[in-house]
Every structure is written in structure tokens, then in C-alpha cells.
Amino acid sequence: MLGFINNQLLSFLCPGLRIRGLSVLCAQTRPRAMASSSSWELPLVAVCQVTSTPDKQQNFKTCAELVQEAARLGACLAFLPEAFDFIAHDPAETLRLSEPLGGNLLENYAQLARECGLWLSLGGFHERGQDWEQTQKIYNCHVLLNSKGSVVATYRKTHLCDVEIPGQEPMRESNSTIPGPSFESPVSTPAGKIGLAICYDIRFPELSLALAQAGAEILTYPSAFGPITGPAHWEVLLRARAIETQCYVVAAAQCGRHHAKRASHGHSMVVDPWGTVVARCSEGPGLCLARIDLKYLRQVRQLLPVFQHRRPDLYGKLGHPLS
């Protein structure tokens, strides 16, 4: 791995940097008139890629090491993928390993956020909600912690993945999970206003448009895309959501083989509002870094004022459930 000084220098020269494996993405297809701010002025975010297993203790150790590395490199916010806590062998094990938000695991992450002094996007926590005793089902909950370890937002996944793809393990998320009741308004963070989503939500552009209309500048899709849908759809969907909303899109992903029945595509990435991939992880665990340039975001929206050109008189108004 590169030394600290070299990492800082590279991230200054380039807004997107993959630390492990040294895959650096410097080229950005911006219109020439659209200059970015000085890199030193821009908030740095880290996107963590892991291979979760049923071993919760080992998963936390892996995630904590990446978060600590992100903090050393100067990130103000680190993103973890869906199922950062564990990926079980079956629904019964999923339910057994789940915890409430007030449990030991979230307290460990709260302490980690305090010690590292950065915000954490915990992209998909297996949550036993207040209705656990009645339902015996859980929520897939995206938790946002601030640098003091306090929960500032929770979003419970609204679109559940019940699909059968040839060549891929069937998914029946509804066997163990309850869909969330609502969207959540974007949250102000040191990197910008973040709209929370999870994995399969990416296939529903209505959600991303609603979040953008509610003020989101960054959309985040923590995920565990499979080995069949991943190569076909992952990057295409992420870039589409960025282009249509003119937001940064941050997508932390699971990678590799979790156990005999389950594998994930990986390729965590950050996409800018022009649709350019500015940071990317490849196959294995690691992290990538990107700087969030909100001045550039505003320039893109001024250049292509698509939200001013929308025709709600023809197809309805998106975003009003959040207002």
C-alpha cells in the first residue's frame, strides 16, 4: 500500500482514487468551461468495499479497519455497503443474527465514528424494529451516524428484492424483511445533502428524482449486486441516476464470495453529476476516495436545467411525499 504522504498527494491531484490496488481515475469528461474548485477546499469521502460473511465480529473488524484508513486519509464521511453487518446462509440465520438499533453492533459503530471523527453511512443494517415480537421480521435499514456517533437518519428499504435470475441464487427478501413505510428527506452532512437509498431501490428512478427534488446533492446506493445483474446493470444504473438527477452518486458494494450460496459483484464507485465515474474499486475488499465538488454540481444544473423543464402537468409531480 502507498504511504500516507503519497496517498494525500494523489488524492489532491485527482478527485477519485482507489487506494488498494492503485487504480487512479483522473480523467473527467467535463465541459471545458466548467472548472472545479481547488481540491484542498473540497470534502473527501471514502467508499468501502467488503465481503461480509455470517461472522459478525470479523465483519466489524474488517469494516473498522477501512473506516480508520479513511479517517487517516482525511475523509469526512465513509460509506459502507448493504449488509455490512453480515450476510447469512438463509432467512432463518438472518433473523437470528439481527439486532435492534440500540444493540451492541450499532454502539460499536457509534464509538468508531467518535474515535475516527467522521460520519458513517451504514448501508444496510438487519434491524429488529419495534414490531419484531409481532412480525418476527426485520427491516433493511440504512443508518447515518454523525461524527459524534449519533443517529441522524434512518431509511428502511422500500423496494424489496424478490427476483429469480437464471444463474444466480434466487432472492426472496420479503421472506424475512418488511418494506419501509416512507422515504426520508435528504440530510445535511459535511459533504453535502445526502439522499438515502439501498441497492434494489436503484431500479426505481422515481425515488432518486423525489430525493433530488427534495434537495439531495448526493444519492447513495449501498448494495450487494449479484454476479449476473452486476456486470449487466450496475454501472449503467448508477450513471443513469447521476445524470437524470444531476447529483453525485455514491455506491458502496459487497464483493466476492460470502459463502457457498452467495457472491457479489463489487465495483463500488462514485459518479459525478455529469455521469463520469470519478472513483472505483475493482474486485476485492478495499476503499476508494472521491472529492465532492458542489460548485461543479451547481454548474451542471445551470448548464442543463432539466428540473425547470419537467412537465408535471403531463406525468405528475415527483417529490411531494417528502415535502
From TrEMBL:
<dbReference type="Pfam" id="PF00795">
    <property type="entry name" value="CN_hydrolase"/>
</dbReference>
<dbReference type="GO" id="GO:0110050">
    <property type="term" value="F:deaminated glutathione amidase activity"/>
</dbReference>
<protein>
    <recommendedName>
        <fullName>Deaminated glutathione amidase</fullName>
        <ecNumber>3.5.1.128</ecNumber>
    </recommendedName>
</protein>
<feature type="domain" description="CN hydrolase">
    <location>
        <begin position="42"/>
        <end position="294"/>
    </location>
</feature>
<keyword id="KW-0378">Hydrolase</keyword>
<dbReference type="InterPro" id="IPR003010">
    <property type="entry name" value="C-N_Hydrolase"/>
</dbReference>
<dbReference type="InterPro" id="IPR045254">
    <property type="entry name" value="Nit1/2_C-N_Hydrolase"/>
</dbReference>
<dbReference type="InterPro" id="IPR001110">
    <property type="entry name" value="UPF0012_CS"/>
</dbReference>
<dbReference type="InterPro" id="IPR036526">
    <property type="entry name" value="C-N_Hydrolase_sf"/>
</dbReference>
<comment type="similarity">
    <text>Belongs to the carbon-nitrogen hydrolase superfamily. NIT1/NIT2 family.</text>
</comment>
